[in-house]
Amino acid sequence: MGAIAAGIAMFGAAIGGGIGDGIVIAKMLEGMVRQPELSGQLRTNMFIGVGLVEAMPIISFVVALMVMNK
Question: How far apart are CA 17 and CA 11, in angstroms?
Answer without folding.
Answer: 10
